[in-house]
Automatic annotation (TrEMBL):
Domain tRNAHis guanylyltransferase catalytic as annotated: residue spans: 35-151
Source organism of this protein record: Cervus elaphus hippelaphus
Single GO biological process annotation from the record: tRNA modification
Catalysed reactions, as listed in the record: a 5'-end ribonucleotide-tRNA(His) + GTP + ATP + H2O = a 5'-end phospho-guanosine-ribonucleotide-tRNA(His) + AMP + 2 diphosphate + H(+)
Name of the protein in question: tRNA(His) guanylyltransferase
Biological role: Adds a GMP to the 5'-end of tRNA(His) after transcription and RNase P cleavage.
Amino acid sequence: MWAAGTLKVRDCLAGTSVTLRRCLKLGATMAKSKFEYVRDFEADDTCLPHCWVVVRLDGRNFHRFAEKHSFIKPNDSRALHLMTKCAQTVMNELEDIVIAYGQSDEYSFVFKRKSNWFKRRASYVFYWRDYFEDQPLLYPPGFDGRVVVYPSNQTLKDYLSWRQADCHINNLYNTGTLAADKNEILFSEFNINYNNEPLMYRKGTVLIWQKVEEITTKEVKLPAEMEGKKMAVTRTRNVVVPLHCNIIGDAFWKEHPEILDEDS
């Protein structure tokens, strides 16, 4: 009697298994459509492994945007500080960024060689009022982005040097003239000593991670006679720090070797 019952149960399970497999196969077939062939046109745009990945954002039609919003010429510190604030926000969101460099309306973000992910975050509009208190935002700005991979430390350093040299050339041109001896003409005709111009204008802004010690106070359990007092606590954390310095040459990289250290 038990044998017969067991046989019936086995037959039932076997039949159910066959039906289930058929349903799953049918479901898989139905999940696809005749339009799915278009996926074959997708190109593999994965960045090469073990290379530095640089994402550079440039303002789109930014001359018009600057005119409409009354940017100060040749340099508007409000706009530059706003760009830096946005870049710091991006770095805080994406810890795979080891260094960033910005000038004018562009910023370059360098991702670790080992980085396997990337996403975007918009913050320019969000922080507008913090820097342009009396100037309403007439329309949102646009930015173009491009991704380039650099296979070695030297090519990465050369890329950042190129951007800083471009900053210097553009600022010198915007501040004065295209004549051969620009500094002399600036001083003699306009009484401008280019070397006294703010470093942010001449060098751009470098964003790096640095360890910072913070002292805070907190409530702790103390003896009755010391009740109500607080204790100072020191902690160390990584923060994004803006620098206005020369990154062309080896001095900067010797001072901050952790940037190119893959294990940092």
